[in-house]
């Protein structure tokens, strides 16, 4: 349980850093708000993996 809480805090910190990056780099902001939470598999229940096709606007957020 402690690992889950720690991981959520790390994800929050990563989101803040991403938002700062977007503010400092006009090209990195495609005109949408994007929030992503990345979690490792070690602390969470497992689910079947699915292929994911992101819209172009979302892909542009992480291309810089």
TrEMBL record:
GO biological process, one term: ubiquitin-dependent protein catabolic process
Gene3D superfamilies: Ring Box Chain A, domain 5
InterPro entries documented for this protein: Cullin, Cullin_homology, Cullin_homology_sf
UniProt GO MF annotations: ubiquitin protein ligase binding
Domain Cullin family profile as annotated: residue spans: 1-58
Protein family according to the UniProt entry: Belongs to the cullin family.
Annotated protein name in UniProt: Cullin family profile domain-containing protein
Natural source organism: Papaver somniferum (Opium poppy)
